[in-house]
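**Entry details**
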Amino acid sequence: MSYIPAEHRYNNGMSYHYCGNSGLQLPRISLGLWHNFGEIDDFSTATEMIRYAFDHGVTHFDLANNYGPPPGSAETNFGKILSTELKNHRDELIISSKAGHEMWPGPYGDWGSRKSLTASIDQSLKRTGLEYFDIFYSHRHDPRTPLEETMQALADIVRQGKALYIGLSKYPPEKAQEAYQILQSLHVPCLIYQDKYNMFHRDPEKASIALAANHGVGFIVFSPLAQGLLTNRYLHGIPTDSRAAKPSGFLKTSQITQNKLACVNCLNELARKRGQTLAELAIAWVLRDERITSVIVGSSSVKQLEDNLKVLNNTAFTADELKQIDGILGAH
């Protein structure tokens, strides 16, 4: 039996990695539409970013039903861009969406019941104009709904042809393990697990990454740059036009401590010695683990996306560099 490598690089410059034990390959860099693709954002910029991403080998686009703002508008905008820019390339794309966070008022627009998941994917398909999603996620564990109900609903979504694969996002390790086992018994194995992972948030190292690997499940990372903190934006404090300076959002000024700023500056110096930006270093650090299938990056401009894709030119670390990074993170 011939050996098939886990990773392939094609002539578009992108590297692709097999997702867990499946035959599906994902690009090492995927584009997330969490921010900057909603109704309030510039549609022409969003179009340019998606076009640029696809032209440079980014075949995976990650959505959720509530991405916007307002909720649903990222899916609507992506559907418009898909129909005009990529309408002849559907079979070259991996498009994912999710349900599980609040999408509409009332008891059925949130969490993980069969009712909510079924209604959510039907709405998402309508907004995007797609016949199916390649990957459909349960966006978070629902503590009130029996896990068997949520997993059965996901398995049925695959059998109904509304999605090709199933994924889980942000499940506690013990619930993820149970979910993997239920899906396996339903003969619709979990393809992929999605979670936040970066230099400042290393919880997945405790159990989730190994658990996914042990079950043949791929692992995809969101927020590799800690909402922009692991970029050169915050080397000298908090810019007035930065994400942290906005009243809404997940990065708060209270999170940007002097210790973290000192840490960021030390990491930036190491990145400079490697011939990289801090953002490239941070993404490469996530990709150092072969169990990581792909990293989802966000982008507000083509230039930012172009810079992030440069990370693929240098993803290797020496043992000394990894020791230095651990030392910097531990010291601060």
